[in-house]
Fold this protein.
Amino acid sequence: MTEGVERATAKEASSKPQPPRHVAIIMDGNRRWARARLMPRIWGHRAGVNAVRETVKAAAELGVKWLTLYSFSSENWNRPAEEVDGLMSLLRRFIHEDLERLHAQGVRVRVIGSREMVARDIVDLIRKAEELTRDNTGLNLMIAFNYGGQDEIVDAARAIAREAAAGRLRPEDISRATIEQFLQTSGAPNPDLVIRTSGEKRLSNFLIWQSAYAELVFVDELWPDFTRATLESAIAEYHRRDRRFGADGTEPKP
């Protein structure tokens, strides 16, 4: 009896579709969440941090190997200074309070984006988080902070041009694989699923090279209301998609 139940359980697990390897999320709606509750904007961002914690936990439990979160774009510096200062304080607090827990859970932290305009103590905290978790083998958590997809491609093009000018790379040898080696996400698989919250339907300069063949799922929930159930629903929608990559169902080689 027990053996039969175990076989049935194993069969059910083996027939269950595998989660997307890499999920990327545009976390949008913190300010609208606060506005709807007649609260200051920073309260929405604080609630958003709690959603980050729950999403990281859920992604790891669901078997996602890579999770990338769009936390602060290079355009966000144009927001009111008080709001930007609050966001920086939240980042400091998140690293101080959560780094040891993430490390204990085997999470590897990686931060992509420019270090320009970022306070020195935050740069040091980012470096500490990356160094501490470098050898972890659990969930790969990438935080896109002070990040812009177009700037990333421009920086990669400049680096490739320098290599060509120095005679280390022939222009005719430049391929998609070459460009990907110079992107900040080098070494990470491209996202299979990109989720955007708050009902908006655009990428907003997020992983625009890497998302060429990603499935896009837009959900109405504001980011602070994002839960494990929301993530599971987005993954279920991903599994309903017919991923042909414009050809025979295999992702094109670089």
